[in-house]
Amino acid sequence: MEVKIFYAGHNNFGNRGCEALVRSVSGLIRENYPNCEFITPSVNIDLDARQWADAKSKSGIQFIEAARFPSKLKWWNRVRRFVPAVEKVGRPSYSLPSHIRDAIQASHAVVMTGGDTISLDYDLPSLYDHAGYIDEAKQQGKKAFLWGASVGPFSRLPHVEKLMKSHLSQYDAITVRESETFRYLSALGVQNVVQVTDPAFTMYPEAFDYQSILPAGAKGIIGINVSPLIRGFRGDEASKASLDRDVALFARELAETHGYGVVLLPHVGPLDGNPWNSDYHYMKGLVEQYEL
Fold first, then answer.
1. Fewer CB atoms < 10 Å away: N or C end of the chain?
2. Quick check: 91 and 128 in contact, CB under 8 A?
3. Contact 147, 110 (CB under 8 A)
4. Separation CA 112–CA 48 (nearest Å)
5. Does the N-terminal peptide bond of residue 153 adopt cis geometry, omega within 30 degrees of 0?
6. 261-287 b/e with 16+ CB inside 10 Å = b?
């Protein structure tokens, strides 16, 4: 049987976690459906195809142009800044572009990946954008799955929590990757929730020459990832600079005092080299500033 899956919640491989989820979920599904194809939205197909050169031949990945962020949600977000009460009116709806609707129509099911996209971490417009894909899938009578996710919590915004409980009930099955989400959704009364291992841990290793990037370390090697996003939780520039310094001093102490080799591992690094929200550029700046 030829099966097609549409991936929602994903639009690029610049986030290595998102890439890992697409790779791992595709691999898991292909264990039971070897010829399954995966329609995968991308904001830059050339870059993503270069990042995963055998995506189509080995894993059945079919890249399509990702939808732009809905203008209706942009306008709704502007209005709520001046009239916060608009949030409580209800979840704004919007229409997906025709090529996305057609891709969902051509699929047997929609799988929401992205890890933590169904949360408040990226604000309401992002949350409602992702929810719209499931709305479309159910309108077309398609199966919808939330796979290996961390969900919510939405409790600090009770009106949103109510809306999201209704939204989550649309999924045919929800698998969550940690106990906190499982407890939260169970307490919320959401059905069909199963706790699983993060699917990214099921990826098979691919051989490459890693010796050139590993430093010497008498006690072994420690990998560290630091995201520039955490700087946003610091209130002023002095506090942000303090964070930068602490990260650098921690890495130096591991190496110079405790004898570990330290590798800085970027989790997010836009494939076009854009420094915005780039772990690579942030950590590279720390190396240069503190001479690590």
1. N
2. yes
3. no
4. 19
5. yes
6. bbbbebebbbbeeeeeebbbbbbeebe
Tokens of 102: 């057609």
- Which residue shows structure tokens 């008498």? 218
Q: Is the pTM of this model over 0.70?
A: yes
Please give the Cα distance from 50 to 56 (Å, whole number). 11
CB 177 within 8 Å of CB 197: yes
Tell me which H or E stretch contains 154: none
Output DSSP code: residue 235.
S
d(CA 263, CA 256): 14
pLDDT tens, position by position, 55-112: 999 899 999 999 999 999 999 999 999 999 999 988 998 999 999 999 999 999 999 9
Structure tokens given for 117: 């996209």
Half-sphere exposure of 264 (CA within 13 A, CB side): 21
How far apart are the C-alpha atoms of 228 and 231, rounded to whole Å?
5
